[in-house]
Amino acid sequence: MHFVIMGCGRVGTTLAKAIEDRGHTLAIIDNNTESFRRLYKNFQGQKLTGEGYDRNTQLQAGIEDAYAFAAVADDDNANILAARMAREIYHVKKVVARISDPRRAEVYERLGIPTIGSVDRTTALLLARVLPLPPDVVYTEDTGYLSLCRVPVGPSWVGHEISALEAELGIRAAYVLRFSKVLMVEASTVLQENDELFYFVAESQREAVASRLARNSKE
């Protein structure tokens, strides 16, 4: 997938590395050539000097093929304008803008443009909002800490109560999909063959938990 980032500051460069580390392509735009010195040594993406809200610059960055656009420059007005262009002109699927003024941020949230502020967790918020979800993830909340996941229940868990599974894996079960019907679970609900479990888990534990749930034995 292709991503376009406007702003090559600390947030922009951190976001760029996270995107490239996941195997995606990207272009990063900044109106100051010197800003590109902040990029990490092995940066493979495209660097464009210009205004992120300039139509020609966005086109050169590949905005028409972009899966997501992140406007994270230090200028709220520039971020807003660039984000609206990406959303309204090029119909980019995921657009997010960094807005320092909370009053203005609320307005643009209502217009359908997610915003993040100048906070310590800015990069985590951006990643949660612009990256595609893994196949087992239904939803990840904005901070990127907690995910709602789904996984077919492995044979080793068939016949066990939900309470035992929650205690051993450190998850919170939400519901079970059984024979194409949603079953709201309780602590005493017993898992059956062919059940698909939906559950909340800390993102840092997601892969390990999914692996244990799907395996044939608990060992």
From TrEMBL:
Signal peptide: none annotated. One of its GO terms (molecular function) is potassium ion transmembrane transporter activity. SUPFAM superfamilies: NAD(P)-binding Rossmann-fold domains (SSF51735). GO terms for cellular component: plasma membrane. Pfam families: TrkA_N. Residues 1-118 form the RCK N-terminal domain. The lineage of its organism: Bacteria, Bacillati, Actinomycetota, Actinomycetes, Actinomycetales. It comes from Mobiluncus holmesii ATCC 35242. Keywords: Ion transport, NAD, Potassium, Potassium transport, Transport. The keyword rRNA-binding does not apply. This is Trk system potassium uptake protein TrkA. InterPro entries: K_uptake_TrkA (IPR006036), NAD(P)-bd_dom_sf (IPR036291), RCK_C (IPR006037), RCK_C_sf (IPR036721), RCK_N (IPR003148), Trk_Ktr_HKT_K-transport (IPR050721). It comes from the Bacteria. Residues 134-215 form the RCK C-terminal domain.
